[in-house]
Amino acid sequence: MWQALELTDNLFNSLLTKGLAGIQPVDVPGIENVDVTELIEGHSSYLWVTEDILDRLELDTYYPVFRGSPTEHQK
Asked: For 69-72, which contacts have Cβ atoms below 8 Å and span 24 or more sequence positions?
């Protein structure tokens, strides 16, 4: 199992004191932390970079559930 995380989302980092999956590494057996900071522009960016994250994890199955306008860097 993997956890993709983005380390610079200051909105969530400043609001939470106990931690939340996706904004800091976790130390749990069986979980591999994967830093995707350079792919994420903010907490809503995951939708547009899901396929890139799965490629980084070397997973070859992607099922898009929503199509809309990608952010400027995805064009």
From this structure: 71/41, 71/45
53/66: higher pLDDT: 53
For tokens 């199992």, the residue is 1
Please tell me the distance from the alpha carbon of residue 56 to that of residue 47, in angstroms, as a whole number: 15
Concatenated DSSP letters for 26-64? ---TT-EEEE-GGG-SSTTTHHHHHHHHHHHTT------
| C-alpha span between 37 and 24 (Å, rounded) | 11
Number of structural domains in the chain = 1
pTM (2 d.p.) = 0.49
For 29, the domain range is 2-74
Rounded distance between C-alpha atoms, residue 38 and residue 45, angstroms: 11
